[in-house]
Amino acid sequence: MRLLPRSLFGRLVLLLLSGLILAQLLSAFILLRDRGQALYESLGENLIERTAGIVHLLDSLPPSQRRQLLPLLGGPKLRIRLDRRPLPLPPGEDASPALAERIRQQLAQRLAGEREVRVALRGGLIDRPMIPMHRRMMQGPAMGGPMAYMQGLHAMARLFLIQVKLEDGSWAIFERGVSESSFHWPSRLLVILAVLLISVLLLSLVGVRSIVRPLRDLQRAAEGLGRDIRRPPLPERGPEEVRETARAFNTMQARLQNYLEDRARILAAVSHDLKTPLTRIRLRTDLMDDGELRRKIQQDLDDMEAMVGATLDFMRGTGSGEQSQPLDLPALLESIAEDFRESGARVRLACEPMPPYLGRPLALKRCIVNLVENALRYGGEADIRLQPADHEVTVTICDRGPGIPEQELERVFEPFYRLEASRSQHTGGTGLGLGIARNIARAHGGDLTLRNRPEGGLCARLSLPR
């Protein structure tokens, strides 16, 4: 299982996306942590001020008036009551001892004097049963905790419990609940973070695509260079490094094109210069009286002209001046097979229907003819099969000859390399047919390979990309 994408675009997007998500998660964690700390401190500060003011007010009133004033001093989230003794807290129930101690110290400073103050932070009261006051006093702290009796605190997620000893020895108990909604995820902040993440991600995708597109054009140009050396130059656009790469590629293409054109001109001159003396020699042999010698010399001249022609064809490559065009490949194979059948050759053809193929008709015809001639020369018959697929077209030409040793399957593509001793008793060809056929295949972006058949014979596999 591959964890990384294969393409450069996918890897860059994965890297940017991972970095953005990690940065957003860290930012959200820091913001929410600071928000929670600020929320607690704000609530604590407000509670300290309010508690100190209420304590001073209760100290200034007689006990008979205090209980009448308590409902007015409290509220939906603040419950105040008086008791003769403080509420005991079971050990380990303080949610934040450090914050509770800080609130206690600040409240003690506001109240001044030697006044006893107790502060605790409680949490998790949502699911606790509600126990009335008189039952709590009878059952003790074991039944749901000392604060579980309070009505209305079932919707509280946190609870500040402050107990202050008044001047007359009684205790004022303050129970401040914090709504659960205060601790919910801040939807506005999350929306802002999501919008920021999506915006940066879209901009990153556009930026990555603009960087990768010139590289993709360079890849296509490199693949098409082998098919058509005269293809239009690659656009020089994108970042400076990409432009320099495209410029170097265009320079290489221009140099290759100039080299091939120079070679073609030299070959044309060589061809012309060789044909002239060969023609003169042929004319002079016609004047010879010795018929046997004349026949041998003319045979040598024929071999020399065939060799020169084959060499020039090999050096020219594949007729690179021919333009690619849609062609009916099954019809082309049928025409080739029929030509060989008319000359008495045993050629069988099996084709599957396919849409038109974009290629060079004359070059492909020569490639297939060379392979069929090779099969007939060494195997006596040829089986041609066309198999189209999604991404390539395969043409196989098989014979029933002796085959080729495995270690020689690649060497036979070398110029002038022949295996007459193992393939036939008589000399056959110039040793350039397979090389020319492979050049044509590779000029179309495909390849030509050979393999021995298990039942005997040789198969040439011509693969052409679609």
Helix/strand layout:
Layout: H1 8-59, H2 63-73, E1 78-83, H3 97-111, E2 117-123, H4 133-139, E3 156-165, E4 171-179, H5 187-225, H6 240-285, H7 291-316, E5 325-327, H8 329-342, E6 346-351, E7 357-359, H9 361-379, E8 381-388, E9 392-398, H10 420-423, H11 433-443, E10 447-452, E11 458-465
Parallel strand pairs: 6-8
Antiparallel strand pairs: 1-4, 2-3, 3-4, 5-7, 8-9, 9-11, 10-11
Query: Could you say which overall geometry the principal axes of the C-alpha atoms support?
Result: rod-shaped
Radius of gyration: 48 Å
* First-last Cα distance: 29 Å
Largest sheet, order of strands side by side? 6-8-9-11-10
The percent range for helix content is: 40-55%
Report the portion of residues in β strands. 15-25%
Largest sheet: 5 strands, mixed
- Quote the average pLDDT: 76
Please trace the helix and strand order, writing H or E for each element. HHEHEHEEHHHEHEEHEEHHEE
Query: Pairing-aware structural class of the strands and helices?
Result: alpha+beta
Oligomeric state of the chains present here: single chain
Discrete helix count: 11
Number of strands: 11
Uncertain segments:
124-157, 421-427
